[in-house]
Amino acid sequence: MNQLRVGMIGYKFMGKAHSNAYRSLPMFFPNALKPEMKAICGRNASAVQEAADQLGWNESITDWRELIQREDIDLIDINAPSDAHKEIAIAAAKAGKHIFCEKPLALTLADAREMLQAAEDAGVRHMVGFNYRFSPAVRLAKKLVDSGRLGQIYHFRAWFLQDWIMDPQFPLVWRLQKEVAGSGSHGDLGAHLIDLAHYLVGDMQEVIGMSETFIKERPIASEMTGLSAKGSGDGPKGKVTVDDATLFLTRFENGALGSFEATRFAAGHRSTNAFEINGSLGSVKFDFERMNELEVYFTSDEEDVQGFRRVLATDPVHDYMEAWWPPGHTIGFEHTFIHEVLELSQAIAEGRQPVPSFEDGVKCQAVLEAVDKSIEERRWVSLSEM
Ligand SMILES: NC(=O)c1ccc[n+]([C@@H]2O[C@H](COP(=O)([O-])OP(=O)(O)OC[C@H]3O[C@@H](n4cnc5c(N)ncnc54)[C@H](O)[C@@H]3O)[C@@H](O)[C@H]2O)c1
Predict the structure, then answer these.
(1) Is the pTM above the cut of 0.70?
(2) Residue-number span of the structural domain to which 38 is assigned
(3) In a domain? residue 12
(4) Got the DSSP string for 240-258?
């Protein structure tokens, strides 16, 4: 097998990011299993054909069940909103297909566990789309933590701040409806931070959170895609059923303390996704708006030059960078997906589970739900309760 035959469902924001990853992979990582962009699936025949032409897919179809049953497809890639993930993933597993599913894995922890079980029972490979793990600067942070160069980890502090729905007239898109999205900023933005925390620091022991929905009703959307939408302020309104902002604290199993803030109401922050880690021997700071950089501080530096240094993670010594441009030539958001698809294709070729897998998706979902429970019951919730 030297090709990976892909069928993809959903073709807007993430669909485009994944399509670009499949197209770019062979050019920069020629030894990886080559994705063959077989078919793309959407509900509107003419719109999905247009997307197939634009994004480079061989054909378009309108029935995902038909796509899943096709003999000439190895991998099903799910880029639909979260309410569609479970049914498609379980059907794909039963049909013996590998699965790549966007985050958050499911609407609930129970659903996420069912998806993991189905994939394990079927013996297929499964991956969840936590793409920020694949930034070279984040990999450098991971290397510094794992090698002990930051010493004992005391703090993980993370924030994901956006402002795209601050206008009360911004329409009621699917991301603001619990039955479609599962939750708001918590499952959309917070999920990425939780995964980074798991990746960089480890498992969590207990959590306590708070959340708020600042704008409780919005005009019904007439058109929507990704983070944009149309709707009229004069038209009918519907109820917002998810959080606009969620904050929580955690104690990690290794004794570190964590704090998390996810909000869509941070004026001026288009998409600030950042974290700091403080250890006994030093600290790191990462901000996705400057994703090629990691700020690093070591307590062992001579006293008169102590301070954060800015490391540009673009040298061949940094993960993935050998395949890209000469040192100092930066990469962007889309590259995280190319690296993600690289891991997926390598794992399938090597007959191992890709990382992050549905197991990581379940772990993230457990934290999301534990935080919700803590908010509802106004108390610390242990992850062992979940
Ligand atoms: N990893 C990331 O950084 C990241 C970023 C954004 C979104 N996401 C996740 O990706 C998924 C999709 O989000 P998006 O921003 O691409 O959404 P989007 O609104 O831009 O696109 C959704 C696509 O799914 C299709 N779709 C909707 N309902 C469907 C259904 N029932 N069956 C089949 N297709 C359906 C739509 O037609 C559209 O093509 C969500 O789970 C979201 O949380 C991840």
Answers:
(1) yes
(2) 3-130
(3) yes
(4) --S-SEEEEEEEETTS-EE
